Amino acid sequence: MKPAPSTIAEAKNARRPARGFWSDTWRRFATKKLSLLALVFVGLMGCIALASPFIVGVKPVVCKYKGRIYFPCLSYFHERLENPIFVKELRKKYSVNLRKKDPDSWAIWPLVRQDPFNRVKEDEWEDQPGNPTGSDGKPSRYNIMGTNQAGVDVFAQLVHGTKIALLVGFVSTGISAAIGMTLGALAGYLGGWVDMFVSRMIEVMMCIPTLVLILALIAVVDKATIWHTMVVIGVTSWTGIARLTRAEFLKLRNLEYVIAARALGAGRLRVMFRHVLPNALAPVLVPISFGIASAILVENALSFLGFGSPPPNASWGTLLNAGQRSPDMWWLIFFPGIAIFLTVMAYNLIGEGLQEATDPRLREGAK
Hints:
Layout lengths: L4 H11 L5 H10 L2 H23 L6 E4 L2 E3 L13 H7 L3 H8 L4 E3 L45 H37 L1 H16 L2 H11 L5 H10 L3 H14 L3 H8 L4 H38 L10 H10 L5 H28 L1 H6 L2
Antiparallel strand pairs: 1-2, 1-3
Helix pairs in contact: 2-14, 3-6, 3-14, 6-7, 6-9, 6-10, 6-12, 8-9, 10-12, 11-12, 12-13, 12-14, 13-14
């Protein structure tokens, strides 16, 4: 006698291991098509940021010079990665001096031969004219997104500016997350005067306009770099994460597994960060995603106002500032504006997807 189909189905379900919280969250997140597409877009942006020296630049990806192999394009990540031999002998003019100094040399160049920091001149490439300047720098065959007033290629600046955008987003939000989760955990778990002190600190920080505080702090720093900007954004945007972490710790600190951990002799720090924090992370991930988008907007706003990453760093906000000073050069506003819009929207969609996937009330309402 064959068992009933319902009995077989129940037996299979009984053998199937129960999904964990994070696997269940990923399964629900993957059903949100827009959020999943946004995650793919952010991954693509990360690939562009890492591969930017191979996509566009005037330094060889790899070259052989005087019998040795070099990777000059890595200096786009940091100027110290450029071998001193190229500074002394070639004066960083690879296209002109590489073959002249060593006839046996060879090089593999990026896909687009444009400099993100300087104008390509008339005699730099044999098969490529110099970049036009001013309002003559409209999008063309050699400058697919046009040039700015000084003749620097916009596409090259956008591609290399992706590193700045992602760095600002992740580094500054990482700093704010570390500060917010630490203070929120201390306030929520310990309570008492610690909770009161942290809560008053949060209220004071929320009363100060973030952009004004950032401008004041940057004005104090001598020769501010993009890293100073990241730190300043990070130390001024932790309040939302701290409040959420505090609320989660207040809810979880008296549950059975926390009481059991304390009864077994676990110290306060171990209970807070080993047992409670992993269970409090789900709602905190949502403001972290929104915080990355906010940090990108703040950095571009600072660059637009002239307080962002200093030259020669390529920044999308700097292009917007150049477009604002030259209204007839529409491509300086259109292309970086689209890049900022798509990036910020992608992080916001990821945040919304995480919120719907982790919030039990939203999950029940979607059924």
